[in-house]
From TrEMBL:
PANTHER family named in the record: URIDINE KINASE
Name of the protein in question: Uridine kinase
InterPro entries named among the record's database cross-references: P-loop_NTPase
SUPFAM superfamilies named among the record's database cross-references: P-loop containing nucleoside triphosphate hydrolases
Length: 179
């Protein structure tokens, strides 16, 4: 969930994997979001937009996950990656080179039905909401002041996360739970 330490853990995994014969490649689910006019649709509640309208899952599946699952051992292609400064996309060359490549997908809501079957191993970080809130208050200054951050998490992020827990049981379905 937000503020649990997903990005920090991914960075540590990459360091460890690089010590082996494997080559890590990381993608962040936040690189696959829709522009603001879609993910902040005024016709829906904030939590709904975050849970249902935020990410381009089909693009990630069609462009990366399905080809790898189908056995494409040397996938190299240009991907549209979200540019938050421009609220648009930039092209990034994605390379998945061979059976020694380990793809790490970092982000929230990765055990949703449309994604979960593409992963070989799922790590879930179980951190209390109160601790996560303290972390995001220090981290998410781009949202605004402390009051703005609390409002956004209480109205957008936390209700969507609660929905995710009810629908997908991420802690129970993970291969590893880190507390």
């Amino acid at each position: 969930m937000g503020g649990s330490g997903k990005t920090t853990l991914a960075k540590e995994l990459i360091k460890e994997i690089k010590k082996s014969l494997y080559e890590p490649v990381v993608l962040h689910i936040d690189d696959f979001i829709y522009p603001k006019n879609i993910r902040y649709n005024k016709n829906y509640d904030d939590w709904y937009c975050y849970y249902y309208l935020q990410w381009r899952y089909r693009y990630l599946i069609d462009g990366v996950l399905q080809p790898i699952k189908n056995g494409d051992k040397k996938l190299e292609k240009k991907l549209e990656i979200y540019d938050k400064d421009k609220d648009n996309y930039k092209l990034l060359t994605f390379k998945y080179m061979n059976e020694n490549t380990i793809l790490i997908i970092e982000g929230i809501f990765l055990q949703r039905p449309e994604l979960k079957d593409f992963f070989d191993y799922i790590i879930y970080i179980d951190i209390p909401k109160k601790t996560r809130m303290k972390r995001v208050l220090d981290r998410d200054k781009y949202i605004g002041n402390e009051s703005d951050i609390i409002h956004k998490y209480k109205n957008r992020y936390f209700p969507a996360e609660d929905r995710y827990e009810i629908e997908c049981f991420p802690k129970q379905n993970a291969d590893l739970v880190i507390k």
